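Hey, quick one: can you model this chain's 3D structure?
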Amino acid sequence: MNFRDFVIKDEAKYYAFLESVFLQLRNKSIKNLIIDVRDNPGGGDDYGIEIIKYLYPLPFKAYSKFYYKKSKILEDFSYLFLYPEDRKNPKMRKAANCLGDCQEEHAYGTYYECENKALDPKPDSIRYKGNVYVLSNHNVYSAGNCFVGLIKDYRIGKIIGTETGQSMSNDGQQCWFFLPHINVLAGGSTTLCIRPNGDPSTARGIIPDYEVVQSEEDAKKGVDTVMGFTMKLIRTKLSPTERIN
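Sure thing. Here's the predicted structure for all 245 residues.
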């Protein structure tokens, strides 16, 4: 499965696609699943989280903590990036502003935390129970990074490739603006999330279980080094300390 981004316009179609795929995996008794999110810049966290529901057997939280700051400036800024047909849709405006379920209780400028509810997995009859391998690299950010982090923290599968470009605990929902006297672009974040395992560090991206770098020689030949390693891993069950030859 390849997910080059998590920017989904037709939610119903996307959710139907996932259900169809995982039904096929169960019906065909597929034992190994490779999910490729390399170069995934992000989109909506919910779309990556939806995949996790098919992979993890217990209720889970996307983040251990999630803090918000309600900002009128951000609301006006994010409004500009919505499709015209979505600008009057309360659900889409809420998603664009990322204010949390308890946003109405707070005034503009308030820093707050909403209840972080656990998410239920899919029914046992459709949930995938085989081996999971996730391909990732330094160009994975935002919702793509969230997905890889959930795989890591809940030990759902093996991550193969290189460190992601962003830490799992991070700030987000930035509002960009120019400083007029020096003509410099600046940004301020209005959210802060802490990864499921509770580690607030933002020093490193998500470290793969198997570090594999695309070689220049293979790239010239059109050969995918990381995918080749993954197929060898499936066939031979390498340990995390081994590398492809």
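One thing worth noting: The chain has one domain: 11-64+116-236.
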